[in-house]
Fold this sequence. Notes:
The chain is of the alpha/beta class. Helix content is 39%, strand content 17%. The protein has ten helices and twelve strands. The protein has helices at residues 19-27, 47-57, 71-81, 100-110, 143-149, 180-189, 218-232, 242-259, 276-284, 286-302; strands spanning 6-12, 34-40, 61-65, 86-89, 95-96, 116-118, 121-125, 131-133, 138-140, 161-164, 195-197, 203-206. The strands form two sheets. An eight-stranded mixed β-sheet has the order 3-2-1-4-10-6-11-9, with helices on both faces. Strands 5-12-7-8 form a four-stranded mixed β-sheet.
Amino acid sequence: MKEAILSVIVPVYCVENTLSRCVESILAQGLENMEVILVDDESPDNCPFMCDEWARKDCRIHVLHKKNGGLSDARNAGIDISTGQYITFVDSDDYIEHHTYQTLIDTLSAHQEYDIIEFPINQFEDSAKEQLLTFDDKVYTNIREYWFSTSAYHHTYACNKIFKRKLFDDIKFPIRKVFEDIYTYPLLLGVTQQIATSSYGMYHYCMNDKGITASAGGKSWSMLLDAHLQILNNPIFQPATEDYLEHLLNIQLYTNELTGESPKIPFIHFHHIKTIKTILNNTIGINNLCKLNRLFRRLIKRR
C-alpha cells in the first residue's frame, strides 16, 4: 500500500445493515490521501461480500479477511497493515460527520507536536442514554491534567481520536477483553507528549442493544474494574482526584452486585472522600457497603 496521511480501521462483523452508512461517511471526509481498512472478522452474514464490493468501488478501501478473533484482534490486524502517518478507528455500526477528518488532519499537519487529537462524540445516539460530548480547543502537555480535568476516564473511546501511528509501535489492544479501550488508552497516554482537544467534528456513536458493551455482564464489569486498578497504580495518574475515586467506587459496587466478588480497590484510596457512599465505606467497610448496596438494589427491584 502507498503511504497515506490517515489510516481508518473499521472492524466488520455482523453489521450488514449499517456497514454502507459507515463506509459512505468515511469516504465523504474530503481526504484523498487516506486509506480505509475494512477488517472482515469472519463475519457470517453478507459483510464479506459487501467489503469486497466497496473495495472495487473506491481505491482507498482495502479489505482484510481474517479468522474470527474479536474486536481487539481485528483492530490489531488493521494496525499491522496500515501505512498512515496517523490512525483512527471507526466501529462499523457508527458514522462520521462530513469533513471531520479533513479539518482535524489539517490541524495535526500544522501542529506535528500533537500526538493525539480528540474531537466531539454523540454518545449512544438514538437512545434514552444519548449524550453529546464536546471539547474546548486546548492543548495538554500534562497527561494527568488532561485525564482528570476532562474526565477522560469517561471517554476513553478509540473512535473519537486521531493518533500518531507510531504510538502503536509497541502497544496493541488486549485480545478477548471487553472495554478494551480503557486498557489501551492509558498506555497510549503513557507515550504521549502532547494531546489536543478540538471543538470541531463529530463521531456518531450509535446505540446497539446487541453490541458487546450493551450486553456486558459481571465478567465484563470485573475486567473494567481490573483496568481501572491498573490506572490507579500508574504513577502518571497519581494522585487520583475525588471524582475519579468516586467513579471507581461505583464500578466496584456494581461489579460486586453482579458477581459477588470481593472488593478489589483497597480501602485506603477512599478514606479522605466525603460523599455518602464513601462515608459509609469508611464507617462500615467496603465488604459491608457491598452487602448494603446489593440489599438496596433488591428492594428497588421489588417495587
